[in-house]
Amino acid sequence: MVKIIADSTCDLSDELIKEYDIDILPLYIHLGDKEYKDGEKITPEDLYSWSDENGLTPKTSAPSIEDAINALRPYTKGQPNECDVIVLTISEDMSTTANVVRLAAAELEWEEHVRVIDSMSLSTGIGLLVMRAAKMAKEGCSIDDIEKEIKMLIPKVRASFVVDTLVYLHRGGRCSSTAALFGTMLKLKPKIVVDEGKMGATKKYRGKLQRVIIDYVKDLEPQLRNAYDDMVFITHSGCDSAIIDIVKDYLKGLDIFKEIHVTRAGGVISSHCGPGTLGVLFIEKH
């Protein structure tokens, strides 16, 4: 048996987490002097309200080593669920989460049975890898086989999104290439791409959000047609349902994917990208 654990930035729905028996290790969100675990007792709307009232972007941080130990402990030597564990985390360029888990595994003297994989991605870019790992675990694959498959897929994950406002990314400092765009942020809606674990602004769109998102998805079509057909994610941080439906219908019309999942970005991702963000995330074959 192999247990799959992911940090909370994977942005998978509660239904998928339950269906594939995935454990979630939450990161932290800080609103001034108040601290919350991602996904617990706080919503993205709460974050946006606080941010607008205070003119600040919420701060986020990795889980504590105690949190990581508690997540791993049920699967360690002598426990009823003793088994190998794979933990998938947000890019190490964005968070120290992966290293915290490594330290926790060493503290428990179980590091030989814990594989920490840096997804080099975020949001459902991680979620795609988590789902693949969880399916392989359900099929009885070994930890070595799962790790090998996931590491092979990491460079093929296509994680991008369009942001409605640059304010949150600019304040958070997680996407350095937005600085040059900030002066014209009201006119531009850039495509942010995760590449080798880092975020960068690429194509710049202009116009109303609905038109921009349609153009963005159409621009992805050549890559989408070269994608693995098992699933694609539409992940958003609070977009109008009509826009989401348009994107979903477009993807259905391509007749490529067996599963089209719509997920809401959690607190950590929403803290950095702001409201009105939408991405289409998938794994390309080549």
Report on this model:
The protein is of the alpha/beta class. The chain contains eleven helices and 14 strands. It has helices spanning 14-19, 44-54, 65-72, 97-107, 124-138, 143-153, 167-172, 209-219, 221-224, 241-254, 267-273; strands at residues 2-7, 23-25, 28-31, 34-37, 59-61, 84-89, 114-118, 157-158, 160-162, 188-195, 198-206, 231-236, 259-264, 278-283. The strands form four sheets. Strands 2-1-6-7 form a four-stranded parallel sheet, sandwiched between helices. Strands 8-14-12-13 form a four-stranded mixed sheet. A three-stranded antiparallel sheet has the order 4-3-5, with helices on one face. Helix 8 runs parallel beside helix 10. The protein is globular, with a radius of gyration of 19 Å. The protein starts with a strand and ends with a strand.
Overall body shape: globular
Give the beta-strand count.
14
How many alpha or pi helices? 11
Order of helices and strands: EHEEEHEHEHEHHEEHEEHHEHEHE
Low-confidence stretches are 177-184
The helix content, as a percent range, equals 25-40%
- Overall pLDDT metric: 92
The main pleated sheet reads as: 4 strands, parallel
**Spatial order of strands in the largest sheet:** 2-1-6-7
Task: Please state the CA-atom Rg, rounded to the nearest Å.
Answer: 19 Å
How big a fraction of the residues is strand?
15-25%
Structural class, by secondary structure, is alpha/beta
Rounded to the nearest angstrom, the distance between the terminal CA atoms is 30 Å
